[in-house]
Amino acid sequence: MNSNVISPDLPTDVLEQRAVEQRRRLHDTVSELRTQVRETVREKLDVQRHAREHVWPATGAAAVISLVAGYGLAGTLKHLFR
After folding, report:
1. How far apart are CA 31 and CA 39, in angstroms?
2. What is the pLDDT of residue 45?
3. Cβ neighbours of residue 29 under 8 Å, at least 6 residues apart?
4. In terms of domains, do 41 and 67 share one?
5. SS3 content of the chain, % helix, strand, coil (to 5)
6. Which range marks the domain in which residue 31 is found?
7. Contact 43/35 with Cβ under 8 angstroms?
8. Taking residues 37-58, what's their average pLDDT?
9. Are residues 36 and 16 in the same domain?
């Protein structure tokens, strides 16, 4: 017989024990989910790790932006002081 089937002839203590087991499993599942979410959030918000992983692309992007801004400013100043 399936242990998940509830029949009217089951004793109350058996039903209470099943309820206790289900609450425990539910509590364990929720605790596992909380732990996984906490770990995921920590990983996503780890600024130092992201900075280490992306330092060279960020440096390259900053160099390109600076170069373009420098040429733009130089061109503007050249036209202003002609």
Report:
1. 12
2. 92
3. none
4. no
5. 80, 0, 20
6. 9-45
7. no
8. 92
9. yes
Whose structure tokens read 């058996």?
Answer: 14
pLDDT of residue 81: 84
Reported as a single tens digit per residue, the pLDDT across 17-42 is 999 999 999 999 999 999 999 999 99
Number of separate domains in the chain: 2
Residue 18: count other Cβ atoms within 10 Å of its Cβ. 14
Q: Is 58 a domain residue?
A: yes
Establish if 13 belongs to a structural domain.
yes
Residues 13, 40, single domain; the answer is yes
What is the value of pTM for the model shown?
0.49
Q: Are 70 and 62 in contact (CB under 8 A)?
A: no
Q: How many angstroms separate the CA atoms of 31 and 74, rounded?
A: 60
Judgement on whether residues 35 and 59 belong to the same structural domain of the protein = no
For residue 17, what are its two tokens? 């024990």
- Take residue 36 and report the two structure tokens written for it: 């996984």
